[in-house]
Amino acid sequence: MAQVKATPKTYDVVIVGSGAGGGVAAHVLALAGAKICMLEAGDMFDCTKQSKMFEWPYQVPHRGAGTKEKPWGAFDATTLGGWQVPGEPYTLAPGSEWMWWRARMLGGRTNHYGRISLRMGPYDFKPYSRDGKGFDWPITYDDLAPYYDKAEELIGVFGSQEGLENTPDGKFQPAPAPRGYERLIKAASDKLKIPCIPSRLAILTRPLNGRPACHYCAQCGRSCGVNANFNSPGVHIFPAMKTGNLELRTNAMVREVLVGNDGLATGVSYVDKKTRREVEVRGKIVVLAASCCESARLLLNSKSSQFPNGLANSSGLVGRYVMDTVGSAVSGFLPILQDLPPQNEDGVGGMHLYMPWWLYKEQMANKMPFARGYHIEIGGGRSVPNAGTLGGYADRWLGGGYGVELKQNLRKLYGCDVHFSGRGEMIPNEDSYCEIDPHVVDQWGIPVLRFHFKWSQDEILQAKHMQETFKEIIETMGGIVTHSSGQDKDWGIARGGQIIHEVGATKMGDNPKTSVLNQYSQAWDVKNLFITDAAPFVSNADKNPTLTISALGWRTSDYIADQVKKLNLKV
After folding, report:
1. Most C-beta atoms within 10 A of its C-beta, which of 20, 311, 339, 473?
2. 3-state DSSP percent of the chain in helix, strand and coil, to 5
3. Number of domains present in the structure of the chain
């Protein structure tokens, strides 16, 4: 490694990471007047200039087909990172299965996530009080509700006012109308008394702050070339840079948080990936938003005589209680949709309807075999078809065919499929955590994470309930179940990390002996160190985490600005 280079300037705030948590911190603090240096481990990315949403398959190698390194193809905005980042390994403890996605690009996962934007509800913040499992948050829904409002109004979320107790309404733009197959699912759900309501996605249906409404090209996974869906660079970072208060450094692989003799953070050390030189950047306040597990890795690698077990780790809980979302899926075939005339199914790149968890009162009355719950995400219709699946349909129900006959059969079946995916809550457990592997470093010489992971019976039984429910919905529509993610001992539950919703690892709380952070995501041990990604989460409700990351990050950033004003923090 080349000689360490120290940046002479001392910033008010150094932010590590540029996703939902880092972006909102930069936005709020830059507008408050703080001088900020933001560090991103990946490349620069501007969706309005680099999106491939309008390119044709013949314009890229192998017509955009996926590879092991780029599983969703050359069009996908996630291709600057992936499940395995070259030169940046992670390891698994014996008997553990875990998948860790790292975006490695400006904006992080906000470039590729499904834009599902759900508020956690009142019961979600007090799960231990409900069933005696896991932990209660040190805050309530009412504490976070004003920041959900702020986040939704800035990023733009469509939805509908439903008045559901534990699926709170928000500040919504109008929701798009359901597609044909979604209306069939809605009718079946009504028969089964399962609520099916407009989805809540961070995609504009009306112009907002100079961003146009979605034009329904349905290519959100390629990133949005017109900035109509939420991504951190377009909504948070580039506007913050226009204030003159935010400096951005990409390809900055942060190694550790630096501390002074007084035990306070003084900045961070990072490796410039272009020059391989180690650089120190000084800051009066440090905000970690590198993603849940990456932030834990930074703390665990920030060892000193003052913090021999890692920074902010006097409780021994950094890296503990890592959680992901419970996932299980079923697909079906609907004969009623055969032989439909060609038609557009205009809409956003995602579902227009979804099903929030509906049985929480039964759980509170101990009438369910598992704790917590899940929501249902739906898909199908005339989206880009899977040729293998369509060919299988033609062979199974129409006797196969070749040439013109095969094409006719496929046209007959195109649009007849439906998909159901459950997204459920995992309860934190002692067997799921990350730690530093003592024997492995990445290409930058930084020790890597080793993961331990285990589902409990609550999650496995939840996956079983998903499978049974999805099949019942398909059969109620007169459909045929064509595929299930599994019916063995674990009921097709996804591998840990596979849903890419990992949270926890530096839980917040009201006691420094049983938590890493206080209710404002401020480290108990280091008062000028904050975390604004998913690491502070205490539980992992069945609501996708990005909106809560944004709301928590906004609340933390407001707190930082207030503490500076009161002279409790110095900038």
Report:
1. 20
2. 30, 25, 50
3. 1
